[in-house]
Specification:
The protein is an alpha+beta fold. The protein contains two helices and two strands. The chain has a two-stranded antiparallel ribbon. The radius of gyration is 13 Å and the shape is globular.
Length: 58
């Protein structure tokens, strides 16, 4: 499992709040790890692969 939130598909920009956040419903322990930057093995991590659809169509 990866830990780089910036490359995760669940790490989205909130236009109303004007900052990036995790769109997953994290529990209290996971949220503390996320906010402190010590989220070593995120169970929700999915690589934001923009070309997955194109490869699927080929």
């Amino acid at each position: 499992m990866a830990s780089n939130c910036e490359s995760c598909v669940n790490y989205i920009y909130d236009n109303e709040e004007e900052y990036y956040c995790c769109s997953m419903n994290l529990d209290e322990d996971d949220m503390i790890k996320f906010l402190t930057g010590s989220f070593d093995s995120c169970p929700y991590y999915r690589l934001d692969d923009e070309y997955a659809v194109v490869r699927h169509q080929m």
